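Quiz preparation item.
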C-alpha cells in the first residue's frame, strides 16, 4: 500500500462536508439513556428529554472534556458525570455545582447541533458553527410521501471510507457482474454505453438504450442532504408496486468505517397491495436484498484504502469521475470560503 499525502480537500471530504444534513443512526438507537456516537469527525451525545424530543451536543464537557453521554439526563440538559456541570441542549452551561457563579455558568461553551427524526432515521445538520435555525431537511418523495410509497430502512456499518460506498452506488455496471446471480439483476446486456443527464438537483448516470431491465441508472442529488436513488426491475413474483426503488445516503464514522443507509421502497398506496408487499418483503425478499448488500460490503471492505490511486478507468466510470469532481469542488468552495475568516482570526 502506498502512502498518499492528504490534502486539505481530502481532509474535509474524509470527515464530511459542512452545512449539510446527514443520517446518523436509526431512531431506535436512542432510547432512555444518552448515547455517544462518533460521526463526521467528532463524537456526539444524543438524548431524549422527558417529552421524547431528541437533542444533540458535542460529547465533551466544556469543563474538563469528560463525555457528557455518560452523565444524567435532566430534561433538556445533561449533567456531566465528572463534576456535575449541567449543559443545556443549546450548549449553554446552566449550573456548575462545585463553583456556583463562576464564569462558566451562562456561557455557550459546547457545540450544539440540530437534529430531526424522519424516515426512521436520526438526521443531524453538520453546520460549521452553531446556528439558531437550520435549513429545511428536504428528502426525496419516496421517503416523505406516505400516501404513495412504503419503505423499509436497512442500516449497516461498513469498514472503509464512505466515498468507496458512493463510488459503488454510482456504478450501475457492477450489478451485471457482481450481482449476476441475484433474482433481480440477471438480465440485460453485459456491455453498455453510459451518458450523464443533468437534473435540477444533480445528475443521472444511465445506460443508453436500456431501461427497466437491470440496474440501469443512478441518480445523485443535493437538496441540502446528499442522497442517491436507483431502481431495480422486479418480476411479478416480487409482488405489486412496480420497480424496486432504493434510496441511499452515507455518513463517515472514521476513515475506516462508514454508515450505510438504504431505504427499500415500493410505490403503493395504503391497502391490501401495500400489505401484501410488506409481508412478502419481510418473509421472502429481505434476506435476498441483504445478500446483495453483503456482496457489496465484502468487496469494498477488502479493497486497499489507496485503491483509487491505482485505477485505470474507462467509459463506464464517467459517473464516478463526475461525482468525485463534484464533491472535490464543493470541498474546495468550503475551504476557500473559510480562508478570510481564518485570516481575520
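Solution:
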Amino acid at each position: 500500500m502506498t502512502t498518499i499525502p492528504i490534502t486539505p480537500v481530502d481532509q474535509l471530504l474524509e470527515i464530511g462536508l459542512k452545512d449539510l444534513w446527514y443520517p446518523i443512526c436509526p431512531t431506535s438507537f436512542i432510547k432512555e439513556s444518552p448515547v455517544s456516537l462518533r460521526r463526521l469527525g467528532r463524537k456526539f451525545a444524543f438524548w431524549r428529554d422527558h417529552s421524547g424530543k431528541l437533542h444533540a451536543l458535542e460529547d465533551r464537557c466544556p469543563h474538563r472534556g469528560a463525555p457528557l453521554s455518560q452523565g444524567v439526563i435532566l430534561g433538556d440538559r445533561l449533567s456531566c458525570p465528572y463534576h456535575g456541570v449541567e449543559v443545556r441542549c443549546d450548549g449553554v452551561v446552566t449550573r456548575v455545582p462545585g463553583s456556583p457563579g463562576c464564569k462558566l455558568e451562562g456561557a455557550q461553551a459546547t457545540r450544539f447541533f440540530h437534529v430531526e427524526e424522519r424516515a426512521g432515521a436520526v438526521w443531524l445538520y453538520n453546520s460549521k458553527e452553531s446556528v439558531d435555525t437550520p435549513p429545511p431537511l428536504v428528502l426525496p418523495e419516496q421517503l416523505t410521501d406516505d400516501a404513495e410509497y412504503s419503505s423499509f430502512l436497512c442500516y449497516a456499518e461498513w469498514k472503509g471510507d464512505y466515498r468507496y460506498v458512493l463510488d459503488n452506488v454510482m456504478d450501475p455496471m457492477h450489478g451485471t457482474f457482481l450481482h449476476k446471480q441475484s433474482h433481480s439483476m440477471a438480465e440485460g446486456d453485459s456491455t453498455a454505453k453510459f451518458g450523464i443527464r443533468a437534473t435540477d438537483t444533480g445528475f443521472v448516470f444511465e445506460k443508453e438504450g436500456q431501461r427497466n431491465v437491470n440496474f440501469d441508472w443512478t441518480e445523485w442529488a443535493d437538496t441540502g442532504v446528499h442522497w442517491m436513488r436507483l431502481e431495480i426491475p422486479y418480476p411479478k413474483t416480487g409482488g405489486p408496486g412496480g420497480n424496486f426503488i432504493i434510496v441511499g445516503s452515507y455518513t463517515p464514522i472514521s476513515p475506516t468505517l462508514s454508515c450505510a443507509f438504504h431505504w427499500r421502497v415500493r410505490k403503493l398506496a395504503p391497502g391490501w397491495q401495500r400489505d401484501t408487499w410488506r409481508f412478502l418483503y419481510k418473509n421472502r425478499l429481505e434476506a435476498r436484498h441483504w445478500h446483495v448488500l453483503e456482496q457489496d460490503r465484502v468487496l469494498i471492505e477488502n479493497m486497499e484504502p489507496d485503491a483509487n490511486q491505482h485505477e485505470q478507468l474507462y467509459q463506464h466510470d464517467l459517473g464516478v469521475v463526475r461525482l468525485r469532481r463534484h464533491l472535490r469542488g464543493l470541498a474546495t468552495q468550503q475551504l476557500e470560503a473559510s480562508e478570510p475568516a481564518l485570516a481575520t482570526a
